Amino acid sequence: MDKQDKQAPMQGSRPPYRPDIDALRGISILAVTLFHAFPRFMPGGFIGVDTFFVISGYLISQRLVADIRSDHFSYLAFLWRRAKRLLPALFLMLAVATAIAPRLMITVELQSFYKHLLGALTYTSNFILLSESGYFDASASSKPLLHLWSLAVEEQFYLLWPFLLLFAHRAKLLMPSMWAVTITSLLAAVWLTTINEAAAFYLPFTRFWELGAGGLLALAQQPNGLLGDKFHLRIGPWAGLALIIPCCFLLNGEMAYPGYIATVPVLAALLILAGTSSSGEHGGKFKLEPLVKLGLLSYSLYLWHWPILTVHHWLMLGNDNLQTITTALFIALFAAIATYRFVERPILHKKSFQPLAVKIPVRAVAMVLFATLPFQFLLPNATQAKADRYAMIENKRQLQRQNIKSESCIKQFSNDAYFCRFYGDIDNVQVAVVGDSTANALAGGLGQILAERYQVGTFNVGRPTCPPFTELSESRGWFSNPPGVCKGLVDRYVEYIINDNKITTVVLVNLAKSLSVVEFAEESSPLNPEAQAKLASQALKNMTARLQRAGKHVIAVVDMPYFPITAAECIHRLAVTGDAAQCLFEEKSMIGADYAILLSLALDQPPNSCVYSHKKLFQHRGKYSMLSPEGILLVRDSSHLSYYGAKLAAELIIEQCAIKTS
Q1: In 3D, which of 628, 631, 624 has the Cα closest to residue 648?
Q2: With a threshold of 0.85, does the pTM exceed it?
Q3: d(CA 616, CA 133)
Q4: Average pLDDT, stretch 373-385?
């Protein structure tokens, strides 16, 4: 998200200032900021990142092509310009965030923060977030540097694009080469979105086409280009605006993105850019002054808005409202103005750093102190000690996932088994715990209790968002499952269980909330929650009956709650307020309609089976609590039992369902 200089052309290679580009930046940052602040109001505002990519590709390519054709190109000079434009404001924001983080975060959050800080400093945030994305990803509000992934993608583009243009120019294949890279990247994005949406979202090559599209327009508007430097599309800006505005409100995070849908905001950005000739002498009617001014602040505002919204969320303990969110946005705007005025603009508009060698560091230190000073009084050093007191060593341990695979188990199944582990006596396995990731979370505690009490082994197998049904045809959700993998895995472990005479008890576990992403073989289109729940209930009944015919005792666990906050956020609330009620929730606040329907239907199971409910484990004072009466976490995130919670649940299952062993 580089900024244009308001300067005259330099050596004939620097393009003139174009207010229409800053107006487009203003639209983009407005969309992104409102999306982050009010996601329900503007669910598609994330397209602002796509339009930023187009702008960057357009400006960078325009400058690079001009420099290459005039023999003024220097890769080191290019990198120096990038560093001058991007690093000072970034370093300032990171300094403030690093100073404040220990005041607000517990240890486990700080570990994640420092990893993301390293990603920000090395422009690898997108790869770090990709490694964390999916079913087990922490809440976005616990990641104040989450938004820097897009800067990483741009920087990775900047590292490679100049060489492509240089070599293509020398081979006299500039336009074909740019088209080839852009089209290939687009096809890769569309294809990968259907298989692994998170990878398509974060990987650089599946985003390069958006920057490449801007580059193609820039090349076409060169003096000898396909369109020429006087070309401008009069209706372009208004046509582009007519596309962008509906996208901001009609698109949402539930849609597969970025696939072919991303071509709409990219086309919109291209239309707006095409409204003015590359020389800036023709067209240029799209320069709404408020948007232009906001566009000048766009880079600084992009840097500041998400960390400030994150801090606001923590301080408000999730009780955000219009007034407090608006206040946070004004603080972000103030920080952006100050950064632009005292750090960003002085560096951009000075040819020499000598006069700034003292001024800029002094200003930066002053701004860091000013930004962090309130936290010295509002959140004294006792905050971290208080957080650690409530988190305790035991609670910190509960936030961690247990080992999910063992070699002895993987030998029985293919790597399709994301969870595959034996507990206790491997030669005396009598209990199987199968299903999605909630089955894996339960298996550790249940396996230990059974090993200690009955000296029997337990094995757990499954995949995230893969319920233990043989009727399903596909399962998609937070965790990307390739087509057919879920059904194939379920068929294999059911056959294994039926053929193993030692296994006497089978525990079927599934997160009710995830049933909305399950596709059943007999249905070819999405169903409403009630119809979906009925199919799931029937599938559960069929699986139970099949296992019972093989002589197995079946226990179904279907009501793992999905809390509205994470376990780490629960600890943070305790640290600030000391009130355990902050981790207490009404049942309706975390369980959808599909859950209630499924639970009522699940009770109608074959005779001699047992339907276990987690209500007794979680209910406290008529609500659902994330903490035990002793103050220990029952969950490790929002929807998975902690190790401690799994052991308590195991005791209740044994008591209620009488696990059979020989």
Answers
A1: 628
A2: no
A3: 32
A4: 48
